[in-house]
């Protein structure tokens, strides 16, 4: 059977080897997987996790999935398709030797590891994305590069689901389970094929359910780097002259935000702080050093600061679609379906779970402080007000509190904790499923406090599923200890994604 499958579907050779040889070579596989660099962040494991049948580390050849232009003298520029052998792994930046067709070394330098993938694990078909969950699938399919009909085949992370054909339809996604019966593959029982390749080729010229036909393979989303360059991982105090200000994105009580560029190459967001005289530079640097270490796929990356002169700059990654609140209120946001809304809520919960695990609190979690990129990737921003805490809470006398998003104990006693962030997350869920409605509309701050103390809670937004509203209500429990943890919220929302489709 193994030989038959290899002949009929060579594009899945790596997957077949995993299926048929896992029992025979289980000990060997475990040994190889343990060699993967433990320093790679959880948010960057997606490429490594797709393929479990890996060759030895020493002999592996890697292929560039995207082009890269060097920013520092020790970095190496390369084009899509260039081949490499890894010399040394150093966190997110690896030392690699670029090879020619015969395997001769052309140049050696530092490269971003998530731009590369093992040559041995790259399947023959551009539409095969390996192991991927629905959240990552949506973020790939829904980018502007993909037109209606764009598709991919993935191996679901859900047990017993197997292969899934996911297709972009307008600004949504449809998912079709690919069933396997002995040597046949099918989506519809009336039409079976000898291989997944045959199945895909058929639906590229024939309709599939409500889909006219499959279009072009999904474009793989180019990953964003978590640093400007290798040198800024540790040396993140940079001169202002390196940055160019472009258009203004917004303003707030603490800062104005601009789009800009670093060295006329890398797009960034530049936050120019107000009231610099009140900042203690030493304390500020200590806070930034802590924030620089908070690295997660659903948290905005802090790149650098400029504090040699006032006003101070804070440099972060740039997100194309702006803040979540403005997006939800736009025509584009109004057209988003429940699956995408729930997917975005999950991403925020994922980022907040990371903060919770690292004993960090936000204090101002709201849709206005979540930024959105291509493919509706969401990242929690403005957690610069957060504090790293050893106790489960801390006290604050700050009167600049967003009343309508703040928990009762924080409003009355100034006690902030991860549980007060959970309350705010419930309000954020209300914003998401109401497409940006103002919570407690028409009620002033004093009235909000009175209503909350009397037991009043926001009603369910129109068309909000009952199981989502139950999650909101759990976030608004009066006693902090009765509210769920972000880890539980993340798990529940992941389950909800399958229920809203």
From TrEMBL:
What is the protein's major site of localization?
cytoplasm
- SMART domains assigned: SH2 (SM00252), SH3 (SM00326), TyrKc (SM00219)
Keywords on record: ATP-binding, Cytoplasm, Kinase, Lipoprotein, Myristate, Nucleotide-binding, Phosphoprotein, SH2 domain, SH3 domain, Transferase, Tyrosine-protein kinase
Among SUPFAM superfamilies, the record links this protein to: Protein kinase-like (PK-like) (SSF56112), SH2 domain (SSF55550), SH3-domain (SSF50044)
Q: Which GO terms describe its molecular function?
A: ATP binding; non-membrane spanning protein tyrosine kinase activity
Q: Where in the cell is it found?
A: Cytoplasm
Protein residues bound to ATP:
271
Q: Which reaction does it catalyse?
A: L-tyrosyl-[protein] + ATP = O-phospho-L-tyrosyl-[protein] + ADP + H(+)
Q: Where is the Protein kinase domain?
A: 243-497
- InterPro entries, per database record: Kinase-like_dom_sf, Non-receptor_tyrosine_kinases, Prot_kinase_dom, Protein_kinase_ATP_BS, Ser-Thr/Tyr_kinase_cat_dom, SH2, SH2_dom_sf, SH3-like_dom_sf
The record places domain SH3 at 57-121
Q: Record's PROSITE patterns?
A: PROTEIN_KINASE_ATP, PROTEIN_KINASE_DOM, SH2, SH3
EC numbers for this chain: 2.7.10.2
Q: Which domain of life is it from?
A: Eukaryota
Sorted alphabetically, the Gene Ontology cellular component annotations on this record are:
cytoplasm
Domain SH2 stretches: 127-218
Q: Which family does it belong to?
A: Belongs to the protein kinase superfamily. Tyr protein kinase family.
Protein name, entry field: Tyrosine-protein kinase
The organism of origin for this protein: Tachysurus vachellii
